[in-house]
Each structure stands twice: as structure tokens, then as C-alpha cells.
Amino acid sequence: MSYAHMSPFGLRRISAGFAAIAATALLAVSAHATINSNLQIEAGQTFELGGGQEGGFTVTGRNTGPVAVVVLGKGEGATSAVLRGTVAPGGEVNASFGPGEMALLRNTSDRTMARLKLKITGDTSSLGMTYSANP
Question: Least C-beta-crowded within 10 Å: which of 28, 64, 109, 135?
């Protein structure tokens, strides 16, 4: 047996091509991680999730707070958002958003904080997250 392809520790060397494939697979797995969140949205505020990402993502969970939350989607380059539904206190959310699309979770109250327990799956590697004042 030739030892030309063996490392000093007796392990076979892997090719650069295999290493690149393995690294790509690892990145693909990490790009699709799950985010669990106990989200709080201040009164009069909208939580903005995503926008500009390469893949889609899904938001599931439950409204654990005392006020309704409106769920909207805003496509990349769009000037207005599209209503996906309203999640009443105790209600559940299950909304999917495409590549480049932004999820908007809007607190309907101007006095009370909204609370949601969420799970975000799909392409979560580059999801931006911020808050803005309700229009």
C-alpha cells in the first residue's frame, strides 16, 4: 500500500473539491437554521423581518399577549404591504414569505405591548430585524 496519500496521522487526505462541497453543504444547513423568539412589539410599532434575502422563510407561532397583531407581507421593491391576516390574542400565525419579501408584524394598540412566541424557519441566514412606527 502506498502512503503517498496519507497524512502523518494515518488519515487519508481529502481533496480540495470534496472540502469545498462539504463547506457548501455546511453553509446550506446553517442558512436554514430555526429562530425561536419571544417577540415583544411596543405600542404603536411594527416589527419588520427580512427583506432582500435570497430564500423564503416561514413564521409560525402564537399571540401570547393581550392585543391583536396584524401580519402583512411587503415584496421587494413594493411601495405597499399586503394584508395576510390578523392574529387575535391566543390565536396562531402561520405565514410564509418569499425571497426578498419582508414580514411586517404590526401591534394594533397604541397603548399596550404585543407579545408573540414565534418560530422562524427557512432562509434565516440574512434576515434583517428592526422596528418602525405604525403608519
Answer: 135
What distance, in Å, lies between the first and last C-alpha atoms of the chain?
73
Q: Over the range 63-100, which residues count as b (16 or more CB within 10 Å of their CB) and which as e? A: bebebbbbbbbbbeeeeebeebeebeeeeebebebeeb
Q: Which of 57, 58, 65 is nearest to 39 (CA)?
A: 65
Radius of gyration for the chain, computed over Cα atoms and rounded to the nearest angstrom: 21
User: What structural domains and CATH numbers belong to the chain?
Assistant: 33-133 (2.60.120.380)
What's the pLDDT band for 9 if we cut at 50, 70, 90?
very low
How far is the C-alpha of 120 from the C-alpha of 99, rounded, in Å?
14
Distance of CA 30 to the CA centre of its chain: 12
Q: Under 8 Å CB-to-CB from 69, ≥6 apart: which residues?
A: 41, 63, 86, 87, 93, 105, 106, 107, 108, 114, 116
Mean pLDDT of 14-23: 46
* Rounded Cα distance, 128 and 126, in Å: 6
Sheet of 57-63: strand order equals 35-41, 114-122, 57-63, 92-97
